[in-house]
Amino acid sequence: MEEKHEKLFDFSLSQAARYKLEKNYSRSFAHYLVIAQLNKQHFHQHLQQDFLSVVHTLTNKLQDESKHHQLNQVYEQSLEALPDNPELLTNYGSHLFRQGSMSKAESLFRKSLVLDPSFLLAKDRLENLATAVLDRWHFPMLNDTSRNEMYKKICGCRLSAP
Q1: Model confidence at 162: pLDDT above 60
Q2: I need a labelling partner for 116 at 20 to 30 A (CA). Which of 22, 33, 92, 140 fits?
């Protein structure tokens, strides 16, 4: 890093920590984004958890204040800094799910599971999404044993899974 960038990096690092201590999470967040742009390797190796903590607190605050546009921006900017973070992807997907953006939420949940197939929160959220978008009118029909038995007799079909 050249000297000018090093000074900016050091300044942003100190400011990110200072604003986090002061509970000014939006300013801390902005400085973490600068750090991520200046030195991705250092950011990923040493500051990722602090950044995620700031993002989590900031997004909860914005959610409580119903500032959905700002919330979307925070998630988008966070994913620019950490595009392959299953937690961020899942949390953003959860926000989009609450906003009714089902296909985008599903995409984020699936990407999270590709990155970490054992990430239970993403699995759970994807199942919740599937349940929410699945029409329920057909469940009683599928559970109607006399109807299913008659169907089997008429068409000679098997209804149960192999």
Answers
A1: no
A2: 33
Number of compact structural domains in the chain: 1
Q: Is residue 61 part of a domain?
A: yes
Range of the domain at 55: 3-135
pLDDT digits (tens, 9 = 90+) for 74-117: 999 999 999 999 999 999 999 999 999 999 999 999 999 999 99
Residue showing tokens 């929160």? 121
Whichever domain contains 10, its CATH number is: 1.25.40.10
Q: Considering the entire predicted model, what is its pTM? A: 0.79
Rounded average pLDDT over 7-24: 97
DSSP per residue, 35-96 = HHHH-HHHIIIIIHHHHHHHHHHHHHHHHHTT-HHHHHHHHHHHHHH-TT-HHHHHHHHHHH
Please state the separation of Cα 99 from the chain's center in Å.
13
